[in-house]
Specification:
The chain has 84 residues and is mainly beta. It contains one helix and eight strands. 8% of the residues lie in helices and 42% in strands. A hairpin with a 5-residue loop joins strand 4 and strand 5.
């Protein structure tokens, strides 16, 4: 079997993005049941075991790839922990 290469990931945070995606979203499953989906920011672990809040994770430390003008670089992240 091949050796899996770990790709570094980088976290970013935008309050505008967080507020935008916090709006509740509802949809109906095929059985007619209404389901709530509320996306929020996420908590990731850094390589030095600190928890950080991010709204975007990229493979580039130089470009977050969004149009949010308040985006702040958080740093390298190593493991997803939970939604915030």
């Amino acid at each position: 079997m091949g050796d899996k290469t770990h790709q570094q990931q980088y976290g970013w945070f935008s309050n505008k993005q967080k507020l935008l995606i916090r709006e509740p979203r509802y949809y109906y499953e095929t059985d007619g049941k209404m389901v709530f989906r509320g996306s929020t920011s996420s908590i990731y672990l850094t390589p030095d075991n600190n928890e950080v809040e991010v709204t975007t994770v990229t493979i580039s430390p130089e470009n977050h790839g969004t149009r949010f003008d308040d985006m702040v670089y958080v740093g390298e992240v190593s493991k997803y922990l939970r939604k915030s």
